[in-house]
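User: My collaborator sent over this chain with a note saying "see what the structure looks like." That's all I know about it. Can you take a look?
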Amino acid sequence: MHIAIAGNIGSGKTTLTRMLSEHYKWTARFEPVDFNPYLSDFYDDMERWSFNVQVYFLNKRFRDVVEISKSQDVVIQDRTIYEDANIFAPNLHDMGLMSTRDFENYKDLFDLMVSLVKAPDLLIYLRSSIPNVVGNIQKRGREYENSIRIDYLKGLHDRYENWIENYTDGKLLILDVDRLKFEDNPADFSKICDMIEAQLNGLF
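Assistant: Without extra context I'll predict from the sequence alone. Here is the result:
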C-alpha cells in the first residue's frame, strides 16, 4: 500500500512522515532534499537552475514510485511525483523562472513517467498558511532556504489548493496543520491517526 503526504515547503511533511512511520511501523520514503546537488544553487539563482532542480526531483521520485509499486510493505512517502509537475514546475514557469522550452520538455518527460505508475492509495494534504510555513522554515534553519521568496511560496500555496480541489486520482485526506500541531501535541497526532485509520478501513 502506498500512502503519500503532500504540502507546501515547511508544512510538516517530513515530520509527519517520520511520526507515522514510527507509530505504525510503516516504511518511510523521504524527499531527497539534503542530498540534492542543485538545491542551494537553485535558491540563489532560480532562473538558472530551475530546470536542473526539477529534473533531479522528478528522476528521484519516479525511481521511488517504481520501487514502492514493487514493495509488499505499507510505504509512506514524503511528497509525490505529481507535485513536481502540477505545482513546482508550472509555478516556476509562470514566474518567468523556467523557459517555455524547458517547461514543455519537462512536462513531456513527466507525462511519460506518470503513465507508467499509479496514484497513491491515500493522499494526505497538509494545508498550511504562508505565515505558518515561513515560521517552520525559519525554525528548522536550513541555510539554503534563507533566500526563499515569499511570492514563490504564495504561488506554490495557490497551486496546491487548486490541485487538491480538483484531485480525483484516489482517496484524499486534508489536514489543517495551522490548527493541528501534531509535532508538539500528542492529542492532535492522535486525531490525525484516527482520521487516517478511518480513510484506510476500506483499503486493507
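A starting point for your reply to your collaborator: The chain is about 55% helix and 10% strand.
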